[in-house]
Amino acid sequence: MASSIHDLARHLNISIGTVSRALNGRADVNADTRQRVLEAARALNYSPNQSGRSLRQGATHSIAFMLQPHPGDQEYGEPFFIPFLTGLQGRLAESGLDLIVVMGAPGDYQQERLRRVVETRRADAVVLAWTRREDERIDYLTQAGFPFATLGRSRSGDKAYPSLDLDFEKAGADAVDRLVERGHRRIAAIRPSLDLNFGYLFLDGYRKALRRHGIAVDPHLIADGFINEAGGYEVTPRVMRRKDPPTAIIFNNDAMALGGCKALAEMGIKPGHDMAVTVIVDTPLCRYFSPALTAFRPALQPMGRRLAEMLLASLPAFAGPEGPRILREVWPLELIARDSD
Amino acid sequence: MASSIHDLARHLNISIGTVSRALNGRADVNADTRQRVLEAARALNYSPNQSGRSLRQGATHSIAFMLQPHPGDQEYGEPFFIPFLTGLQGRLAESGLDLIVVMGAPGDYQQERLRRVVETRRADAVVLAWTRREDERIDYLTQAGFPFATLGRSRSGDKAYPSLDLDFEKAGADAVDRLVERGHRRIAAIRPSLDLNFGYLFLDGYRKALRRHGIAVDPHLIADGFINEAGGYEVTPRVMRRKDPPTAIIFNNDAMALGGCKALAEMGIKPGHDMAVTVIVDTPLCRYFSPALTAFRPALQPMGRRLAEMLLASLPAFAGPEGPRILREVWPLELIARDSD
DNA sequence: TGTGTTCTCGTAAACGTTTACGGAAAAACG
DNA sequence: CGTTTTTCCGTAAACGTTTACGAGAACACA
Q1: Taking a contact as any Cβ pair under 8 Å apart, which residues of chain B between 48 and 77 contact chain A?
Q2: Are B219 and B254 contained in the same domain?
Q3: Count of the separate structural domains present in chain B
């Protein structure tokens, strides 16, 4: 059906070797023949069979991004990732690489799927998102010697792989600073209960900032819940049912914040009025919620580009005109002040 | 590095042919040898090289979903697709197929990228989303004889490919019915200006329902805009600045509705109070917006599963125990009444 | 003219599988 | 015991590329 390099060769009456060399821009082919080959390729609508190339070269020319929804995340999805992927894809395409997004079922941990991608050599490298504190995916990949980069740090952080993360620690601290400045002293923090590393970073920043202001860290004002709306809805009351309830809550996740606000509403508490609410990672939902939620916004698309660059620099086949490899970068989150605090 | 079938064969002192047959469950291999092969495969952590299989078999065992953001869609993404993809992925995985999502840059039309996937044989079939009225992707694929399925219909609808769509026509009509029932007679319709087919379907339903109620269709109450927030913001005033403005607006898209509501707010008009607002495709944003927007909700995850099934049934290698192939299905949208109308 | 160099191309092996074919051994059958 | 069938396995080709190697022709140089 589709034309192969043999068809081209036969059509031009030259050997497949020459055709291949002409197509791949090698030097040892006559300028004239190359011209003819290229024209014939266009005429016969030839493009090389990817499996053939991959097999011979041992490279697939594609990068895998592992994506799967959080457990119970039927409806929401992560709109978050689309701009990130756009940036990632854009940069990879410039280097002739395809981005393939490998979907998993919601909830099942990626280990199995990751193994498949690696072992069947479906991609030349992978990009992981939302690294965990202790991330067995990272251990697996380093041990397997498979190239990868991560969106997010993990605790075993000194390993030599490119990683790009957001400064959740600073965001947590900034959020506290802002709230303290506005007169709050009882500030709650609600984060996902999963082992997701950003949850720890956020809490560290939160704690440090409180201490800096001479405010004791009250463990009753810190709570963990499922990383979705139901989680926020369930866990927020736990922090409120104290004789000395908080006057402000920082949510580490937009979905949890929405659930939390629902719980607050049922208690007759109005965010932005009776309670200051801050969200660490901004999404469109924060903007459209009423009241619009003050939140910290990441530069997703540039981050995607950057992580692609870092990954490329770590791949021998693409390592540019030198320059030391960039191993980790931590990007700031920008405060978007709205109406909820 | 990674073990090949040759390693296995050498290790077991049998031929690679036998190893392959054992692994693939062929009948002509001794039960005992098969056992040994499987054990050795586990021990040596063998899994077949995907490129090798694909090359030999002429099949990649993966399905491509073409995804790219709408032009100008930097921030929002389409949370829409995640649950759909989850369903799609789940069903494909059950048949041993991988789902790969091929990202494109925002705005660039998919034709080029699609050609690449097809011509380099990266996938065995593709799934298209948001078909256009006149969709050259469909023409290309049918002409190339490449298997595919679509989320959404297109006008050249009698071609023989599986397609699953939402009943936008009925939703448009239902929306009108509901509004008329509640006393509205000046009902505007705002939809994307792109050639997206659902925009036409929606408008058909809208028109028919109006006529059924004996209400003349006023072209001044119909407007097209960019399929994003800015589009809704820009186009909504155009419909309002009439001496006989509408008392209700149906938006064909959540993002456009949000922009439209912003424009209304600036005119001092409160949705759900001074103006009834209905959205055709529900998303989490509709739910969290204030006022919560009445919207028509699709069953995304089941749709994903179903489309996978339809696609599989159309692939010779997977066609189940017969039953005629399902070519097109149109699923209902469920009205979620909220506070905006 | 002889020797060395440069261009250009064909040959063939290799990547890791799957599978058609055939043959040896074992089993079944008369 | 001879013949036929069945069971099991090895051989080798094929999928579509890329690339190391070598060879012929053209050219340069002395």
Answers
A1: 48-52, 54-55, 60, 67, 69, 73-77
A2: yes
A3: 3
